[in-house]
Design brief:
mainly alpha; 2 domains; about 0% strand; elongated
């Protein structure tokens, strides 16, 4: 669905990040329970291994692959059609949930930065030695991806957000 005033590329990036956010919002407990559930109860197009991979990537703070996103979307559809199973599936798990950052929210905040904001962040971070070289490279890579309307890696996006927050003491707000 193309949103008014946005290019197809921007919509693609936002749709992907929204899907990732929705998948992660279910939490580790749900994904662990779903892994157990699909191991004993066949669910169309969901396998133990595909669900396990989503869970593992969440636990390890790894970027999702396109396959993980498709698995996540299928699982979200399944649970939406079978809402009565949600608590039953979560209760199968012994895993504790942890707070997971909403990557779409992070993207929206970073995307709102102007070119001048980016220049200030990069200059200030370099001049004050707030950013290590790899951190500065990551910030520049995320800025480039957003400028080109490409899909930035989830972890790179989140690390950029954390890096920029270090500049709060210099009056930079995100």
């Amino acid at each position: 669905m193309i949103k008014k005033g946005k290019s197809a590329a921007e919509n693609q990036v936002e749709d992907t990040l929204s899907a990732i956010s929705e998948i992660k919002k279910k939490g580790l407990k749900f994904w662990d329970g779903l892994k157990i559930y699909v191991d004993t109860t066949p669910v169309d197009k969901l396998t133990y291994h595909s669900v396990f991979d989503v869970l593992k990537r969440m636990k390890d703070n790894k970027d999702f692959t396109s396959i993980n996103i498709e698995t996540g979307k299928r699982a979200l559809s399944f649970i939406e059609e079978n809402q009565s199973l949600y608590e039953e599936i979560r209760n199968l798990s012994k895993v504790e949930d942890i707070e997971i950052q909403d990557i779409k929210e992070v993207y929206d905040r970073i995307k709102a930065l102007s070119k001048d904001d980016w220049n200030k962040i990069i200059d200030l971070g370099g001049q004050t030695k707030t950013f290590a070289n790899l951190e500065l490279s990551n910030i520049k890579a995320v800025q480039t991806a957003i400028t080109k309307k490409e899909n930035p890696k989830e972890q790179a996006l989140y690390q950029t957000f954390l890096s920029i927050k270090k500049l709060n003491k210099f009056g930079v707000k995100i």
